[in-house]
Amino acid sequence: MPLSIQKLASRLTFRQLQVFKAVNDLKSYSKAGELLGLTQPAVSSQVRHLEQALGMPMFEYVGRKLYCTAAGEEMARCVRSVFRELERVQNSLAALEGQVAGELRLVAVNTAQYVVPYMLSAFLQLNPQVTVSVAVVNRAAALQRLNDNADDLVIMGMVPAERPLASLPFLDNELVPVVPSGHPLLRQQTVTPQEFLDSGLLLRESGSGSRLALELHCQAQRLRATPTIELGSNDAVKHAVLAGLGVAVLPKLGVLSELALGRLHVLDIRGFPLRRSWCVVYPQARHPTPAMRAFIDYVQQNIRQFERMFLRHRELNSAVGHQGTD
User: Fold this and answer.
1) Where is the HTH lysR-type domain (predicted)?
2) Are 152 and 264 in contact (CB under 8 A)?
3) Cβ(32)–Cβ(23) under 8 Å?
4) How far, in Å, are 128, 218, 296 from residue 100 at the CA level?
5) Which of 27, 35, 50, 316 has its CA 20 to 30 A from that of 301?
6) Does this model's pTM top 0.70?
7) Does residue 134 sit in helix, strand or coil?
8) ω into residue 273 within 30 of 0, thus cis?
9) Cα–Cα distance between 155 and 112 in angstroms, integer?
10) What is the pLDDT of residues 26-68, one digit of tens each?
């Protein structure tokens, strides 16, 4: 016989719901413990007490993988609703005080990770009650997360026009052809695009936005771009170039220090740099939360400031490089 609402409410605790949500989201007791600052036995104990209160198991293992039971799926929907309501109340109370509060879940594609910290610095000073989380993924994963409506805002380039997405361009992203110091191509007066691409091209994995930008450029210019090595991040590609494993097309903001110090060099090649814009993106059907709206407005009002900020950042790196070569 089902418990009355009063009895059920007396047996459940908010901590149990919080732990349940973390285990369900991460599909792991140990990862949930890391997220919440609990030991794995403490997480297991909270879930066990929740199951005892409800009289049904919430999770089950199939092989070594953790799954929600049917009862767990129903509980997950309920818990998501509870947390959404708590966030709504938090936002409403903050609005009564004339402040913006709540969680802002951002996703940044790999190339945008160099930009996001600078954007957030002033925003969080203006909105100290907003809690921000940032996940860094490749373009394919960012598009999937947009499709799943899993986050608040995505910072990416090359926004697909065929999808119902709202986007706000805010900063240029230059992709430049780089080689390491001492590379044979540096001794040539002119370098053709195909010569560069045939010099041991290092590429990101399929699904990366920077790789897609280069592939689209090569298709339009009828160039061959065959990778010698594929790597999973721009930093990995950069270090592979520094190690002499090949050449690459990388976001300029990600290699400013290496360029300033003379460890990497940008080649003057026809058709480069590739220019794209970083954009703040979200589904058109999504109703922005107060934290989302505050961040969008902040970006829109500070586009010129971002441009000046990164220009100063580039000049500072250049000055450091000149001091190092004196």
Assistant:
1) 12-69
2) no
3) yes
4) 8, 45, 13
5) 316
6) no
7) strand
8) yes
9) 7
10) 899 999 998 888 899 999 999 999 999 888 999 998 888 899 9
